[in-house]
Amino acid sequence: MDDYPALNLFWTMLWFFLWILWLFLLFRVITDIFRDHELSGWGKAGWLIFCILLPFLGVLVYVIARGKSMTQRDVAQAKENEAAFQSYIRKTAGTGGGGSHADELARLAELKDKGAITNEEFEKAKAKVLS
Questions:
Q1: How many CA atoms does the CB half-sphere of 63 hold within 13 Å?
Q2: Which residue has the higher pLDDT, 60 or 1?
């Protein structure tokens, strides 16, 4: 380790870190190319070829040219994921389409008033809703 000074080790680690960072950016750009629904198939192929044949220049130009729309797609995807998650929670919890307890009780009272269910059936159903 005496023949490899600490400054050289620092520079080596810095270049390694920057290389890993660039790889993440490259994969992020390639993912964004395929995720963009507004870009035609030929446009996707062109950007992909540009990023593969001239990777540093291709990624740099892509981020400069389409960086803002890249962020907008990220935000839209996050909102879509959040909406899907909230929908799943509502569906799983049983509050999505069935209505609240008050709606269910109102429906039961209406059925009792119409004579569709007896008073005993109404009380059993009410106890079930409230439990």
A1: 12
A2: 60
- Burial class for 75, CB neighbours closer than 10 Å (0-12, 13-18, 19+): exposed
The DSSP secondary structure of 69-130, one letter per residue, reads HHHHHHHHHHHHHHHHHHHHHHHHHT-SSS--HHHHHHHHHHHHHHTSS-HHHHHHHHHHHH
Spatial separation of the C-alpha atoms in residues 32 and 36, rounded to whole Å? 6
Task: Encode pLDDT of 61-94 as tens digits.
Answer: 999 999 889 999 999 999 999 999 998 888 877 6
> With 80 as the cut, is the pLDDT of residue 1 above it?
no
Query: Long-range pairs for 119-122 at CB < 8 Å and ≥24 separation?
Result: none
Please, which contacts does 116-121 make with residues 24 or more away whose CB atoms are closer than 8 Å? none
Tokens of 82: 């959040």
